[in-house]
Design a protein that fits this description.
With 438 residues, the chain is α/β, with parallel strands linked by helices. 31% of the residues lie in helices and 24% in strands. The chain is built from 15 helices and 24 strands. Strand 4 and strand 5 form a beta hairpin. The relative contact order is 0.15.
Length: 438
């Protein structure tokens, strides 16, 4: 049954929230565990629908898994992989599952992986992935919705991306672990999730230097040199940015725990520029508050360490009621302004001109019925709803479920008036069940 999230706005936040493990990291660690042919245990795993999908992908390949949601850990035993095909049934649901390509090519020297799916935020081609694997000696072909890759052996080489690609960097890094010789990835993605993947691979015995910079060097090892490991996922910087936005939007305050502040340096700076109050209580705990109207500001989304595209919609939500005119430029995905039409329904004044959005702050948003268009847009609508006068109903919650663990519970922990209900219970009015057949 379809569900909706109901938010009653203009209630100042209070309380605290603890950030979960990074979705965009743990999914790649799960894929990378296929390389070692041993058992790996990953801790700080968030309870998300995307994690469930990745487990299905890995099990389809023949690995054995154990998922303890209470302990937030996953065990993956890939000793006996029986299949090199990751089918469309699962991969089409979530783009991150495409990263099993590099792990399978690295270990099995062949792979058949469905072209990826996920949020419809814009064109996300796989040509960089293919170019990187071909540079290592892999033949790649796209046929019937699958990437088919084969290699007699992989040999290290220099892979240079035209632009930094997180997924391509991850796939090439994983494939290079068992390649002969040394691989150099130039213009590599620098995201914290790349560093987390590199540290996980190093825990298995891989030799990797430079992760977090534009040049990553991987020295190939033999299969016998890899071993199982235990590893704890980093906190989710995008979830942290989400709750920072929601607290500020409410005009209240809140404590955010289990956060790596240096992963959000530019985003935090922009929130301070808008007039929010942010201070560190300890190295992994932050206090966030706001008690006045925010000020307009401009930003451009860029690869890390620039402004995160995943937080663009949330920042835009804050700007809808900021004093003055703001300009947001989305440089990475051409369809990442889909949330604007939902903001319009709430009274926002936004003009979109190709990759630019011009926002003139209004005095107040008004609650209404809106729908999530993608994962981060859903969180942005919650941010807008918290600011809005009255009640907002947010539909298409499957998008939010992909990336936010125990979302409603965490909102309530911040004193946000939120409840999740099925649509039928919203539509029924008092007395409508009188005389109904049961």
């Amino acid at each position: 049954m379809s569900e909706k999230l109901i938010i009653k706005g203009q209630n100042p936040s209070s309380g605290e929230v603890t950030i979960s493990g990074a979705k965009n990291s743990v999914l790649k660690l799960m894929a990378a565990s296929l390389l070692c042919g041993d058992k790996c245990t990953i801790y700080n795993v968030p309870e998300l629908s995307d994690v469930e999908i990745m487990l299905e992908v890995i099990e389809e390949l023949g690995a054995k898994t154990y998922y303890d949601k209470i302990a937030k850990k996953i065990e993956i035993d890939s000793v006996n992989l029986t299949n090199c095909t990751a089918s469309q049934k699962f991969v089409s649901k979530m783009r991150a599952s495409f990263c099993v390509l590099g792990a399978l090519v690295g270990r099995m020297k062949e792979a058949k992986v469905a072209l990826p799916g996920g949020c419809k935020i814009g064109e996300r081609r796989v040509n960089f992935h293919i170019k990187g694997l071909e540079t290592l000696g892999c033949s790649c072909d796209i046929k019937d919705g699958y990437v088919i890759a084969k290699a007699t052996e992989l040999k290290g080489d220099t892979v240079c991306f035209d632009i930094p690609s997180v997924g391509a960097t991850e796939n090439v890094m994983m494939a290079s672990v068992l390649a002969q010789g040394t691989t150099v990835i130039q213009n590599a993605a620098q995201e914290p999730e790349i560093v987390d993947l590199a540290n996980f691979l190093k825990s298995m015995g891989a030799l990797i230097e430079g992760a977090g910079t534009s040049q990553i060097v991987i020295t190939g090892v033999s299969q016998s040199e890899l071993r199982g490991c235990e590893y704890t996922t980093i906190p989710d910087r995008i979830e942290a940015g989400t709750y920072m936005s929601i607290i500020i939007a409410s005009g209240g305050s809140g404590i955010i725990k289990n956060i790596f502040p240096n992963h959000l340096t530019l985003f935090t700076g922009k929130l301070l520029e808008m007039g929010a109050n942010i201070k560190l209580i300890d190295p992994n705990t932050m206090e966030v508050s706001s008690n006045k109207r925010l000020s307009a500001m401009n930003f451009i989304t860029q690869p890390y360490p620039g402004f995160p595209t995943d937080l663009q919609a949330l920042a835009m939500a804050l700007l809808t009621t900021a004093e003055g005119i703001s300009v947001v430029t989305e440089s990475l995905y051409e369809n990442r302004f889909m949330h604007v039409s939902e903001f319009w329904k709430m009274g926002a004044n936004i003009i979109v001109n190709k990759k630019h959005a011009i926002i003139k702050g209004v005095d107040c948003l008004v609650g209404t019925q809106v729908s999530s268009t993608d994962l981060r847009a859903g969180a942005a609508l919650v941010t807008a709803a918290v600011m809005a006068k009255g009640e907002t109903e947010i539909g298409q919650l499957s998008h939010i479920d992909r990336g936010y663990e125990h979302f409603v519970e965490k909102l309530k922990g911040l004193n946000i008036d939120a409840q999740r209900v099925d649509e039928k219970s919203i539509e029924l009015k008092p007395g409508e069940l009188d005389g109904a057949r049961i």
